[in-house]
Design brief:
Blueprint (H helix, E strand, L loop, with lengths): L2 E2 L3 H13 L4 H18 L6 E6 L3 H9 L7 E6 L7 H9 L4 E5 L11 H12 L4 E4 L21 E5 L4 H4 L4 H4 L1 E5 L13 E4 L1 H4 L17 E5 L7 H12 L4 E6 L2 H5 L6 E4 L4 H5 L4 E4 L10 H13 L4 E3 L18 E3 L3 H8 L3 H6 L1 H12 L2 E4 L5 E3 L5 E4 L11 H13 L8 H20 L7 H8 L6
């Protein structure tokens, strides 16, 4: 089950419901502190030194409990009551070069800008070489909107308690939250509050990789048709095509104005030169992708019109990406078949008539607005990609890294989604296909980022073909 992303007010309501049910604050703090201790132990080694920074609130209480669950680690505890009086002790402890600092100074309830003394205290932590594990939220970060309240701990890891908070997922918080972890079971009363958006985890993706009947053949596993490619942009449909193959449909075809360079690089993919015969060939596919590499000046009007006709009328699921996004009219298409738009923030901004910064400041809102305007499902790419429809909760992806910020990664994703949608196993389960593709795309990038080599799109496509669960 995806995990809720809750505002501070929703968390406070959840806590009140928990206390009203007779569950004590102390029992929740105990479970939260145990979770902090487990994670701190996992990221350190035997006899490593850990510095615990304990503030006045419940975050401090969580860390105080964690001190009892750190095994054979060498633990130093600093109870911080006054940033001026305790600065000297902080400098002394940091001078001992702890392997890990655990931040329990401020929690999600911080509702003011920190004064200059707290800013100096936090700056001292940030200037040390010690990695920081922040509890629930890096101290100094607004958990609702991701803004810095004067100064903020630059954490290497943040352990969210109970749920994720929207501010931690904002781009403005990217430099200070580090790797996000979750302790979802800390004793708060079930069920969790309903949320506007949910965090999709590895557990949610188990069982979605398509399986094949042992006596099946290529004709029963679907056929994705990719419309793309133009002069100077012939690589995009090739990337989409090979990514489509990694999704394991029976067949992949590319329909392109750039026939010679595309066909020269495709062996397992059928390549069709764009002409009037393409419409009949497209009718034999079971899913469509339009957009990769259609930015050239030689894209024919007939190709553009065909894409529009398919968008409006085709009974097949269809993905529209890149330059083809700008061709679409607002308003729901006549067909009720699944439609997916896959813009990055700049493309979304053009479609919405606003700045990319505005899109990024409210990613779920932007995705949902696009979905409403175009009568489609929207996958807004970027840090923590968002999958949304005009109503209902949005899904927020948990995988991926900045290594995906290179040309071709969007084409790979579009082709991979299309390859899944083409398969009968995903008919009626299109949202699952889109979310799984997004998650696997990010997972592949994370696998590559964990290595020691720079990587590109060929590596990403190859890693998409690896099994994520054994």
């Amino acid at each position: 089950m995806p995990l809720p992303i809750l505002s501070v007010a929703q968390v406070r309501d959840w806590e009140k419901r928990t206390w009203d049910a007779g569950i004590t604050v102390e029992s929740v703090i105990e479970q939260a502190g145990q979770a902090v201790g487990r994670l701190a132990t996992q990221v350190t080694q035997s006899a490593d030194s850990i510095l615990l920074l304990i503030g006045k609130g419940n975050n401090g209480s969580d860390v105080r409990v964690a001190a009892r669950h750190l095994g054979d680690r060498e633990v130093a505890v600093l109870e911080v009551a006054d940033p001026v009086e305790d600065l000297g002790a902080l400098k002394h402890h940091l001078g001992e070069n702890p392997v890990l600092v655990v931040d329990g100074l401020f929690g999600i309830g911080l509702n003011r800008d920190l004064d200059k003394h707290w800013q100096q205290f936090i700056q001292c932590i940030n200037e040390s070489d010690a990695p920081v594990l922040s509890v629930d939220c890096p101290s100094g970060l607004d958990a609702d909107n991701g803004q810095v309240r004067g100064a903020v701990i630059e954490a290497a890891i943040t352990l969210c308690l109970g749920c994720f908070k929207p501010g931690l997922l904002a781009n403005s918080a990217a430099h200070c939250v580090g790797r996000l972890h979750i302790a979802s079971r800390i004793g708060l009363k079930d069920p969790a509050p309903e949320a506007d958006s949910y965090w999709v985890t590895e557990q949610d993706m188990r069982g979605l990789s398509p399986q094949r009947d042992p006596v099946s053949h290529k004709g029963v596993h679907g056929h994705v048709g990719i419309i793309g490619g133009s002069t100077g942009y012939h690589g995009a449909p090739i990337l989409a095509g090979y990514a489509g193959l990694r999704a394991q449909p029976g067949l992949v075809s590319i329909f392109t104005s750039a026939y010679q360079p595309v066909s020269a690089q495709c062996q397992s993919i059928m390549v069709h030169p764009w002409d009037r015969n393409c419409v009949e060939a497209l009718s034999r596919t079971t899913a469509l992708v339009a957009g990769p590499g259609l930015a050239g000046g030689d894209v024919e009007d007939s190709l553009r019109q065909t894409v529009l006709n398919l968008w409006n009328e085709s009974s097949k699921p269809m993905v529209v990406d890149a330059s083809a996004l700008d061709w679409l009219p607002k308003g729901a298409p006549d067909s009720e078949a699944f439609r997916l738009l896959t813009p990055h923030p700049g493309e979304a901004a053009r479609l919405l008539g606003c700045s990319p910064e505005k899109v990024e400041s409210g990613r779920v809102r932007a995705a949902r607005t696009l979905a409403e305007q175009f009568g489609a499902t929207v996958l807004l790419k970027g840090r923590h990609s968002v999958l949304a429809q005009s109503t209902g909760p949005a899904l927020v992806n948990s995988t991926g890294n900045a290594g995906l910020a290179q040309g071709g990664s969007g084409d790979v994703l579009a082709g991979f989604v299309g390859g899944l949608l083409a398969q009968p196993v995903f008919h009626g389960r299109e949202i699952q296909a889109a979310m799984y593709a997004t998650w696997k795309h990010g997972w592949a990038a994370d696998q590559l980022a964990s290595g020691s080599e720079y990587w590109g799109m060929d590596d990403l496509i190859n890693t998409l073909g690896k099994r994520e669960f054994h």
